[in-house]
Amino acid sequence: MSLRPDQLLQVTPAGLYCPPADLYVDPTRAVDRAVITHGHSDHARPGHGAVLATQATIDIMRLRLGQKAVVGAQALALGEAVTVDGVTVRLVPAGHILGSAQAVLEKDGCRVVVSGDYKRRPDPTCEAFEPVASDLFVTEATFALPVFRHPPDGDEIDRLLVSTRAFADHCHVVGAYSLGKAQRVIALLRRAGYDAPVYVHAAIERMNEVYVRHGVDLGDLRPVEVATAADLAGAIVVAPPGADLPGFAEKAPDPIVAMASGWMGVRARARQRSVELPLIISDHADWDELIATIDENPGELWITHGREDALRRYLEVRDRPLRTLALEGYDDEAGA
User: Fold this and answer.
1) How many domains does the chain have?
2) Could you give the CA distance from residue 321 to residue 307 in angstroms, rounded to a whole number?
3) Residue 182's domain is classified under what CATH number?
4) What pLDDT, in 10s, does the model give residues 69-108?
5) Is the Cβ–Cβ distance between 296 and 133 less than 8 Å?
6) How many CA atoms lie within 13 A of 314 on its CB side?
7) How far apart (Å, rounded) are the C-alpha atoms in residues 103 and 88?
8) 37: domain range?
9) Is residue 49 in some structural domain?
10) 184 near 123, Cβ under 8 Å?
């Protein structure tokens, strides 16, 4: 007799829980057993007794949380399966950042897929999203409004490069989240033929080292902290949004401020951050990607966090139920 999806996955105060395996997926507090979909801090927290994740995610967690914060970690390759108390656990690519994965749980003919954060478009820094049919699909909905249709990332990088040529004496400072977005922006610049040094903030430099160890070529990278005024004239700097850059104002007194985020499609957001060159580059699925993914999964649908109203209407006219979890502890802003 097959299990029902709600027997294989349940919602608890600590997050998504699989009772047959006694494990959680991206729990919001420390638990005995956790499957971690990726290394962003709203999904990867310290203190778990045992962690199952990709090697890249484990490496990212150890860098961000400390070696002692990630004990009992077991690395699982993408596509590899392991059995935990009769439940088959498999990680498949999510296309979000390096090491990101969807958690696939199967037992007695029932399959549940927890997406974590994901996107469908190609990314030179991580493996592409892999759709998996399921009886229950648990999805994020960060950009679940029809207004969010992200342009091709190559077009946004071209806009940045056009600006560097038009303002060749100015430094361009690109605000980008230190894990995922920064490395993607750099890799996209390299793919577009930009081979000059890219200057990076120290927080990004440490994360770059993990990416390089996992085979992502980011080209010539240099610390912005030791760059001279001559170095920065006409250069591209990548730094976390709002990061402190000591002495930077003296070396690059009139920089052009850019920011890479899916939220840069909202003009008010760009104005609030005094962004002169908004770059709509997101590591989350836009409306069309969400709809394509949901349509590929005809089973039950749960939303962990995000904007569900438009999705609810879309599904209502197709007689498909939707359960909104509104899980606390997930951040729609970081890394978007």
Assistant:
1) 2
2) 16
3) 3.40.50.10890
4) 788 899 999 999 999 999 999 999 999 999 999 999 999 9
5) yes
6) 16
7) 10
8) 5-147+284-324
9) yes
10) yes
